[in-house]
């Protein structure tokens, strides 16, 4: 049996920012191998604007250890490409690291399921 995947049917277990980071790395490899002329050609094939392609490719300006963390971190609220733009704009990797740690170390509120609320209500 074949499973057909549509563009909107993707693995939700991989955070979007990790997928974007992986794409940036892959696209960089394709450009270095001269599979494509430039970002504009990739953007055209991917049906995104050149500006969006630039935003994605700017993730490569992050320190290598930050890139690695992005690839393997679980879903974290607030960890997205838009929130990383300020960090990417810093040239010095030593300045990027504490900025990134601020994003990933923000305390997260535990998710409470409806079933746990229902069980708690029954007890009272």
Query: How much strand?
Result: under 5%
Shape estimate: globular
Order of helices and strands: HHHHHHH
In total, the number of strands is: 0
Helix content: 55-70%
Q: Nearest-angstrom radius of gyration?
A: 19 Å
**Domain module tally:** 1
**Mean of residue pLDDT?**
83
Number of helices: 7
Distance between the termini: 49 Å
- Weakly predicted, low-confidence segments: 1-6, 115-122
Task: Give a verbal description of the structure.
This protein is mainly alpha-helical. The protein contains seven helices and no strands. α2 packs across α3 (50-57). The longest helix has 17 residues, at 16-32. It is globular, with a radius of gyration of 19 Å. Residues 1-6 and 115-122 have low confidence and may be disordered.
Please write out the topology.
Blueprint: H1 16-32, H2 39-46, H3 50-57, H4 64-72, H5 81-88, H6 93-104, H7 114-122
Helix pairs in contact: 1-4, 2-3, 5-6
């Amino acid at each position: 049996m074949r499973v057909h995947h549509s563009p909107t049917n993707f693995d939700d277990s991989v955070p979007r920012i990790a997928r974007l980071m992986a794409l940036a790395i892959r696209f960089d490899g394709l450009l270095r191998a001269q599979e494509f002329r430039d970002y504009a050609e990739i953007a055209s094939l991917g049906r995104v604007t050149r500006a969006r392609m630039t935003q994605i490719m700017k993730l490569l300006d992050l320190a290598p250890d930050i890139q690695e963390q992005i690839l393997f971190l679980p879903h974290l609220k607030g960890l997205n490409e838009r929130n990383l733009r300020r960090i990417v704009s810093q040239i010095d990797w030593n300045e990027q690291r504490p900025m990134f740690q601020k994003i990933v170390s923000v305390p997260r509120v535990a998710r409470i399921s409806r079933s746990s609320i229902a069980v708690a209500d029954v007890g009272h």
